[in-house]
Design a protein that fits this description.
Radius of gyration: 24 Å
Number of strands: 5
Structural class: alpha/beta
Strand content: 5-15%
Number of helices: 11
Largest sheet: 5 strands, mixed
Amino acid sequence: MFKLTFICLDTETTGLDETAEIIEIGMVKVVDGQIVDRFNQLIKPLKSIPENITQLTGIDNAMVCDQPSWSEVEAQILDFIGEDLLVAHNVSFDRSMLERHLGRILPNSWLDTHDVAKIFLPSLTSYKLISIAGALEVSGNGFHRALSDAEITAGVLLKLIEKGCTVDPFTLQKIITVFQPEASAASSIKEENGLIQFLTLLRAYVTGHTVVADQTPIAEEKTYGQKPLLTFDQVKEFFEPNGLLNQ
């Protein structure tokens, strides 16, 4: 089993703009493929919850009126997060929302299941969490509640890890190269790139667990110098039935 410890999290908020407040946070800790701990907390906002948010999440003002404020639960949230890799779906929203409430940038690396899904499920027509979960047969207790979405995100990532473990190390290295920041990029960006860290760990695991079944050496690629293999006169022959293209 590919061993990785990470925290999947999701937030429900009063909106999408910069003044929005977190009204619920859900987190699950995954160690070596198993959820070992959960954290779920409703949070009382400073302003009322808009009706459209209540319709989407089911969270209304009555549910949060007796709940703690953000400042009262902040220490618990930070304690649960620790130094582990943080995972979310469409991570930029949850990350910006969480760090704005904390008033600082977290040192943790972040991984977006949206990005991982696009790598290992390239043929999907939608990369919404509900679509990816359906494609991977990951079930949950509904969407748009923080803990449920965090649990589904964890299930999705574990399924994507299974798919990633079937990819050969050479291909994984090519993928890493595509996402590797340019040499001129700041080193801090490279250190914060959870996707590269994740893929690098996955490649190391696959490299160490590759099943060697076929020892047949790979044929060397032939080089033909500068002389073209086909001339213009051979175009018809190239495209006709049983021609070179067909072969």
